[in-house]
Amino acid sequence: DGAFRSARELCARGSCRERGQRLWWSLCSSQGASMYADAFILGLMHPLLGLDHLLTMVAVGMLGVSLGGRAVWLLPISFISLMTIGGIIGFEGVHLPYVEIAVSASAVAMAIMIVSRKRPPTAISIVLVAVFGILHGHAHGVEMSTVAAAAQAAGFILATLLLHGVGIGLGFLIRSRESDFLKWIPQPVAP
To answer: Per the confidence metrics, is the pTM higher than 0.70?
Structure first.
């Protein structure tokens, strides 16, 4: 009750109302709206323009399809969830060593898991994808500006969802035309 009363007193003095009005006016003014739209577009474009981000996020969807079953939706959900947490960690300034190298390595690791005839079990894939999600999120979070961070985060989360969807679509396309694609993959020659 004491915390509620002090919050009510704070609002009664106008602090909460003034903060709310400032936020509202910044959102409604053309400059404020433009700032949030720019931040959203920046967040949306980051995964699309970074080749390591793009390949990893598409590969998450493709790996989910190649594993089949619940992995089709579990892998993207675990990636996005942990990417969001990683983004918060990065935004808050927590340092993770070698993030950029690990982000690039995650694209290679995902490619190996997809083309390998012997794929890891679903549980191990989920853990790996979740770790990759933290790393990618951290890389996004470190680069986020403090102004309109939520809009920028919404942009990169939406882009990630779309890229996972593209990966799922490609995975199903490849599965439906697997014999056509296998003609292009070099086969080992028996000794």
So the answer is: yes
The residue type at 49: L
Rounded Cα distance, 191 and 188, in Å:
9
DSSP symbol at 1: -
Confidence of residue 4 (pLDDT cuts 50, 70, 90): very low
Q: Is the distance from CB of 144 to CB of 153 less than 8 angstroms?
A: yes
Residue 1 burial (C-beta neighbours within 10 Å; 0-12, 13-18, 19+): exposed
- Which pLDDT tens digit goes with each residue over 61-73? 999 999 999 999 9
- Which has more confidence, 133 or 144? 133
Report which of 175, 160, 170, 171 is spatially closest to residue 129, judged by C-alpha positions. 160
Pick from 92, 187, 101: which is nearest to 136 by CA? 101
Q: 120: which 2 tokens? A: 């890891």
> How many other CB atoms are there within 10 angstroms of residue 45's CB atom?
13
Give the Cβ contact number of residue 155 at 10 Å: 23
Residue 87: exposed, middle, or buried by beta-carbon count in 10 A (0-12, 13-18, 19+)?
Answer: buried
